[in-house]
Design a protein that fits this description.
Number of helices: 16
Order of helices and strands: HHHHHHHHHHHHHHHH
Distance between the termini: 60 Å
CATH architecture of the largest domain: Orthogonal Bundle
CATH superfamily of the largest domain: UbiA prenyltransferase
CATH class of the largest domain: Mainly Alpha
Shape: globular
């Protein structure tokens, strides 16, 4: 049995891990490296990508900013989370707000240090990214439509940093980006439906609150159609190896999502829908391994 002080320390570590969503950051790191190897820089040797110090610094900077973003978001949403996620909120509150803010500034400082190893432009990029996340959490998050779009853009920004680094402007890259952007946008709007109780209580002007749940479902249905269309474009017009299995499976899951959406009317139902989208996103990360690198090289 651990002494009481050690138990309290372990709980605080778990609390901090919960606040910064450590599991999400790990998935983003894996996604950045796989995307760099198979999508952004398929013409470079595997070792040149994996052992590229500049890429490592960009990934570390992204991870630090994402973690700090979760902290500042948790800071501003503490009252709403107490309503929507009482159990998680109680765990998160084991770490004081002052400690969270101290870690927030430390992570942002580290992100700038990592970025400075790459270039001054990287420093400017991540400084703007840090400011954008703060401004979203402080102001834009409570605005309908704008908040959703900005949140989706901020989510895919770490991949944009890798995209700029490798300067790969092929159309297939933009189609992958569109598919991911649509999924993330759908997830954000689904989360708004899931959290409508807390948003109403604290006057968050989300799409479901301002325009109603029915309008949110219409928008999600339209987004589902666009996402499926982008998946079919990737399947039929680009050489993506065996990754087409993932896109076919995604279309099936999105069809199920669309059917469930119009029958959903409770937090539990919307949580299921949220988890379907989360599963597709995480599965998509690892399905990048299904891309045949030889096919990618043949088109260069």
């Amino acid at each position: 049995m651990l002494p009481r002080t050690q138990k309290h320390f372990v709980l605080k570590v778990f609390s901090l891990f919960s606040v910064v969503r450590g599991y999400n950051i790990l998935v983003v790191v894996i996604a950045q490296y796989l995307a760099a190897i198979y999508i952004f820089a398929p013409d470079l040797h595997f070792k040149h990508v994996v052992f590229d110090i500049n890429l490592l610094m960009l990934v570390l900077a992204s991870s630090a900013v994402i973690a700090s973003g979760y902290i500042i978001n948790n800071f501003y949403d503490s009252e709403k989370d107490l309503i929507n996620r009482p159990n998680k909120s109680m765990l998160d509150r084991l770490v004081s707000q002052n400690t969270k803010l101290s870690i927030y500034f430390t992570l942002n400082f580290l992100a700038i240090i990592f970025a400075s190893y790459v270039s001054f432009r990287a420093v400017v990029f991540f400084a703007l990214y840090i400011f954008a996340i703060w401004f979203y959490s402080h102001k834009l998050k409570k605005m309908p439509i704008t908040g959703n779009l900005v949140s989706a853009i901020l989510t895919v920004t770490p991949f944009f940093a890798i995209f700029i680094y490798y300067k790969n402007f092929e159309l297939v890259v933009f189609m992958h980006a569109l598919f991911l952007f649509m999924l993330v946008s759908m997830r954000e709007l689904t989360k708004d439906l899931e959290n409508i109780k807390g948003d109403l209580a604290l006057n968050y002007r989300t799409i479901p609150v301002v325009y109603g749940e029915k309008m949110a479902k219409y928008l999600l249905t339209g987004a589902t159609i666009i996402t499926c269309a982008s998946a079919f474009v990737l399947i039929f017009y680009f050489q993506i190896g065996h990754m087409y299995y993932f896109f076919y499976a995604s279309v099936i899951l999105l069809f199920i999502y669309g059917l469930m959406l119009w029958k959903s009317n409770s937090k539990t139902h919307y949580l299921w829908l949220h988890n379907i989208l989360k599963f597709i996103i995480v599965a998509g990360v690892f399905s990048i391994l299904l891309i045949d690198i030889n096919l990618v090289l043949n088109r260069l």
